[in-house]
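Data availability (excerpt). The following record was deposited with the supplementary files.
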Amino acid sequence: MRVLRVDRKRGMIEVVPEDEEDLWTLSLVILPGDQVEGVVTRRIKREDERGSGRLFTFRVKLAVEGAEFTGSSLRIKGTIEEGPEDLVGKGKHQNMEVRPGEKLRIFKEEWSEAVVDELRHAEEVSRAPPVLVVSLSDEDATLASYQRRLGGFRTVRRKSDEENLRAFFGEVAKAVEDAPEEIVVVGGPSVIVDEFRKFLEEKGTEKRVSYVVSPLRGEKGVRDIVSKRAAHVVADERRRAVEGRLEEFLTHLAKGDGLASLRPEEDAETGNLEVLLVHEDWIKENRKEAHRLMKAAHDVGAEVLLVKRDYEGEGIIRKLGGKIGIRRYVLH
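Predicted structure:
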């Protein structure tokens, strides 16, 4: 979650949800009686037009009647309060579908500190780990740190054409090892990238390194690498966290130590739930039940994680009913 602006005088907070977890958080925050401002698409047929009309996309402000997390989007139901007068009329019903990356303004008569803290917490939790981006050529390497935006540019130059390429790679590798980032993306011409990959594998590194081909160099190369790979690396880290929790659940289940929960709704009621894992398909098929369960887990401070279809081990959760958990302590 990115919180772009907090305007206390207008009772407005502007946010950009970055993933499905953020959409779910907003479904708890947005209540009947609130107002939201965002983009909608509506089919409109004018009097002089034939057929079913045309699709128009425009910004509106809605008086909220309800908000629901669908598993892949946030669906807000309400009536139009403000919008293009030539396209919509005030008071008409309208649904707004909000997806990750789409800006949304939320208006409340009064924002409680608890709700603002909830949004700030979501912003902190979703903050991606920093990634070291390296644009590599046979003449120089440009390094930068990426965490939502680029910064900390620096360059390692090959001293001369006579300098051994391996010696130059050694300087680049040292710069990578000295950097605080644990995740690294290296890009450049395929031949150079492949040679550096072999060099680094031979030398050994504890950092997680991935590679991508990029025809550009310098700062342009860094930006090209970010657009091609760095955002995917951030998503991979989120996947890694979810799959790690699933592995933890399976370990408890195999041990039979009583910490694996197949009825997380019961554990949420008693406050004995540390982690809730829910499959995206189960959410879509059981929206109301999913909303109640995820809110109950959230209210007792449990970590709530969504498991997507392409995650490793997702089939296990589906076979176990679409929802599993990890308990805080063993029941006796």
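Summary of structural features: Residues 35 and 163 are 64 Å apart (CA to CA).
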